Amino acid sequence: MDEHDALDDVRFLREVVERTQRPSVNDFWAVTLGWGCVVTVGYVISAVLGMEGKVVLLRWLWPILIYLVALPLHWYLVRRARAGIVERGVRPGFRKDLLCLWLSISAVGLLWTAGLGFSGNMTSHWYVLPFAWGSLYVIGYVMNGILISKEWFWAAGVQFASLIAAFLAGPHYYWLPGVWIGGTLVLAGLLGRRNVRLQAASA
After folding, report:
1. DSSP codes joined into one string, 11-50
2. 52: helix, coil or strand?
3. Euclidean distance between CA atoms 50 and 58, whole angstroms
4. Closest Cα to residue 164, out of 153, 177, 149?
5. In sequence order, which ranges of the chain are alpha helices (DSSP H)?
6. First vs last C-alpha separation in the chain
7. Lowest mean pLDDT, pick from 41-45, 46-50, 67-71
8. Pairwise CA distance, residues 165 & 175, whole Å
9. What is the pLDDT of residue 8?
10. Radius of gyration over every alpha carbon of the chain, rounded to an integer in angstroms
11. CA angle in degrees (0–180, nearest 5) for 41-42-45
């Protein structure tokens, strides 16, 4: 084997490693942004319905948003992102670690919600839910920053700041961490979009 063949083999192996290693950016930023928009709109509608006293409609709002809007949008955006990854010659992998992480977070949050509901303390201790869900999302965002890309650390910081601000501001602002869940998802999506474009420009 001559030197030219050896160099070709090295280049080939380097390309294989680059195509199989995890990306340093979030190629699924559009999915994050989509969920952020849906969650933000959901909280705004919830606030409007709550102020107008239409509490009956609230029990239907989130099932409609999640099952009829968010999940179909999620499916479409994931397929589109995967197609873009394949076009670059990279095989998109299935992230079991992320799936287990967010299933665990959702399960703990739902248990908190169900516990308040079944105990009859939802009306008097409703403020526990924004703090519980907000705290869980801080943990999830930090893990996303470790497993996916660094913009999730910004989302974790903003979410954590909203928890502190709500606690210091008092009961009238206990809703803030819940509202900022959607805002932090939008932030992570926009930062992910910027990072993908910067990487493409520098390539």
Report:
1. HHHHHHHHHHSPPSS-TTHHHHHHHHHHHHHHHHHHHHHH
2. coil
3. 8
4. 177
5. 3-20, 29-51, 55-64, 71-87, 96-119, 128-147, 151-169, 176-202
6. 32
7. 46-50
8. 11
9. 56
10. 21
11. 85
Determine the 3-state secondary structure of 133 from DSSP: helix
Question: What is the number of other CB atoms lying within 10 angstroms of the CB of residue 4?
Answer: 8
Cut 0.90: pTM above it: no
* Pair of tokens at residue 175: 């809703």
- For residue 82 the two structure tokens come to 């995967």
Residues found in the chain: 203
Q: What is the pLDDT of residue 143?
A: 93
Q: Where are the beta strands (DSSP E) in the chain?
A: none
- If phi > 0 it is left, if psi is from -120 to 50 it is alpha, else beta; for residue 113 that is alpha
The span from the CA of 42 to the CA of 110, in Å, is 17
Are 37 and 186 in contact by the 8 Å Cβ rule? The answer is yes
Query: Tokens 């280049």 appear where?
Result: 11
Collapsing DSSP to helix, strand or coil, 3 comes out as helix
Locate tokens 């801080």: which residue?
A: 138
